[in-house]
Amino acid sequence: MKILNLYACLGGNRYKWDEVTDVEVTAVELDPVLAELYQKRFPNDKVIVADAHQYLLKNFENFDFIWTSPPCPTHSRVRVSQKNREGFEFKFPDMKLYEEIIFLDSFFKGKYVVENVIPFYDPLIQAKKRGRHLYWTNFNLPNNIGERKLNGTLTNMIDEVGQLSKFHDYDFRQYKGKQPLNKVARNLVDYEVGRTILETAIGVIRRANVKQHELF
After folding, report:
1. How confident is the model at residue 82 (pLDDT cuts 50, 70, 90)?
2. Which of 1, 52, 80, 174 has its CA 20 to 30 A from that of 206?
3. In 26-35, which positions are buried (b, 16+ CB within 10 angstroms) versus exposed (e)?
4. CA distances, 9 to each of 43, 47, 128, 215 (Å)
């Protein structure tokens, strides 16, 4: 199965995919330090340092399944809650999120998932809410997608990076790039969610193939 994993970070969503099926993954990540660490973690994946948004536009037809997690900070309720703090920087919500949803839903023939946070505004396109995130897909998701719960909340967690390292089974202190370490650690999708969603997509694809064969 050919999979495109966009805004790949350190592959939280990808971690358990090999347990689901044989995968041929192309990962796109703009931060070269994260890309190098991703490659070490998943040596059989093809890792590309590039703008994921543009890569999607030019290469989407080459894949069976696409997972994309566009940047979420400008949509986040947590960020907006800090608007009265001194030095707060106002930003427009990054509309690449909705560009990708519309594009995939209109042109992509495979199965896709777009993942993001629950925004501070009413979503402009209806999504499936599961736990603390929204998912836009062209297939149905189960009510329980396997999301695990952290012990405590990120805002009051002691040794946040250490706790998230245990949760994601990855030592984030390996990262020596320019981004804040806690931001990198927070960006990973729960690997059990990644596995459940891929399992669901594969089940839908197989059922579709069976129905197609039965027509002839």
Report:
1. confident
2. 52
3. bbbbbbebbb
4. 15, 11, 23, 42
Residue 97: strand, helix, or coil: helix
Rounded CA separation 200/140 (Å) = 8
**CA 61 to CA 176: how far, in whole Å?**
34
Span 61-74, average pLDDT: 93
Answer yes or no: are the C-beta atoms of 194 and 15 closer than 8 Å: yes
Q: Residue 169 and residue 199: Cα distance in Å, rounded?
A: 21
Classify residue 9 as left (phi > 0), alpha (psi -120 to 50) or beta: left
| Residue labelled with tokens 């990644």 | 194
Please state the φ and ψ torsions of residue 137, each to the nearest 5 degrees.
Answer: -140, 165
Task: Name 134's bridge partners.
Answer: 116, 129
